[in-house]
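Bench notes, afternoon.
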Amino acid sequence: VIGYLGRVLQEPYEIDYNDLMRVLRDVRAGRLAEAREFVEELGKDSALVEDAMRQWGLYNRYVTVQEDERKLAQFLAEMVFEQHYNARAALIRTVLSDDLEGAKAVIAKVPGIPDDIIDHILALKAQTERERKEVWQLGGLHVVGSERHESRRIDNQLRGRAARQGDPGSSRFFLSLDDDLMRRFGGERLKNFMSRTNLPDDLPIENRMLDRIIESSQERIEGYNFDIRKNVVEYDDVMSKQRQAMYGQRREVLLGDGSSLDDQIEDAFATTIAELVDNYVDNYPGYVRSEIERVIRDFSTDATDEINVRGVVRQMRGLLPKATTLDIDELSKLSAARLTDRLMLLAHENEEEGTNLYQLLRAMERFLPLLPPVPNLGSLAGRPSGRLQARDLIRRDYLEQVESLFNEFLAEQADRADRDTIWEKASTELEQAFAQFSVDGLSSKNATARQLRFLERAGGALRDLLLDSLSALEGEQMVAALKSYVKTQQDKWRIRIGVEQYLNFQRVLLLSAIDREWRDYLTAMDDLRREIGLAAIGQRDPKVEYKRRSFEMFADMRRNIDRDIAERFFRDIAGHQQFIQQQEAEAAYQIQARDAGYEVVQREKGKGVELRRDSPKVGRNDLCPCGSGKKYKNCHMRQDLAAAGASPAVMTGGTGGGRKKGKKKR
């Protein structure tokens, strides 16, 4: 196939055979951008790539339909029809432009077109000229309208059909008193007038006043329709501005450089971190109160003001763990305001006991890896010897990782003495946790239980370390420390996976977050648009209410985008690294197979891939695929061998006449 395409495309594009082979291989592998760049470097027409793609498409379709005679017949019929359709269109164009030589060339090029078709087209052309003169002599086209439209524009379009491009013509409209337009505006009065004057029903009425009445009716309907469209535009104007803002942000992500993407992700982390610190540290009572009031509204009945206290307690147990110990019957007797005050007492207790910092820690762990995971010492059960040395080695490495991350977190915000005190306490607890994990008698049966106890002790030590670190900082210091820590971890990942792949990950992350939240927002706005008319019942302007609520929902969507970016960044980047490694391995395999003259093809049934030659194997004495007429050994064989990096003896199996080795007879 490659040899055939080379012979077909080489002459019209005047390109070297080897260069054409490279272009065809790139096209077949889907590397269209590389193929176009290579063709442009050669100074050739880039249409070569599109032509090669078209030829490959035809070949693939032909291979697909070969096994089915009906599909093969359909394929051939479509090909012949397309060829004849294009040829007949070109033929008509050349004949009408008096290019008879060009028309004869088209007939000679495409088989199956009769020779007398030119005379037939000329006869049709002469016939249309005669008919046009006849229509002119008769006065042109006369348009008869059976009714008047609500819009004058439609009536004028019908009148315009009678006099296109200077042709003569006329028009006349007939109306009935039962038409919608007449019935809505003045039809009854006209009927009463005809009944009083005893005018017959089939008597045509022509009067200038009647024309003015009809035009006035059309103007009123057009004004009514304009008001409807204006109302729709006012609603759509809100979405239009928001759409421009989101599409502008999306365009900035697609076309922006690394600095702009860094700024967007940095802003997302800064917004999320500032919100968390404000909720759990600076304004913890206010945040808890707003959550309590929101939950009470959700679990209240508007008609009776009854509160589902069990639902409120169940919903608030994450922020207020002690709420589950309260008496439900006692809480059920309280009003909404008294219930809020009662639960706020628990919020103040949380703040005094430092529970708010623990809640902040849990919230941050959803998107920020503050410390490395606890190692699995239970896996030492599979070692036949050296368990104690392996445990000590794991302990040293893990403590070094924890200390490094701890110093990165507090390096610029806490005093050296405070950091040393906090780390000394945490390292002692971690050392004890490792020491209490006994490797004596460790087996697969008790490894899980020992690992769980170790996980509980080490996890508690890490939790105390983070809580002590957060307690040593004020609100602003905490925000600065977290932002600096995020920046440090991002720089590590940028070095680990490379600048280009890091940029690709940022772009994919931002686009996925924007698209996901934008789709949800559009669905919510459609629901709001359908139900906003009910606001008029409450004596509120629906359009004003729609704009207010859409602004609030848009702000919530922007916050959700920032939160989604922050929560998924460190969670997804590890998977992106694995994807990169897999892609690089597959690309290397593809290049290796391509250089050897093969193509990697996914099997149709079953798993795995198989190697196929992308061009037929050519013997040294066969004709060269380039179409020169020479033998392969005297034409392109040496160039192909040099490109493959093999010697002629290896590629052709050698030319020696030694005796073949055979199996020994027994």
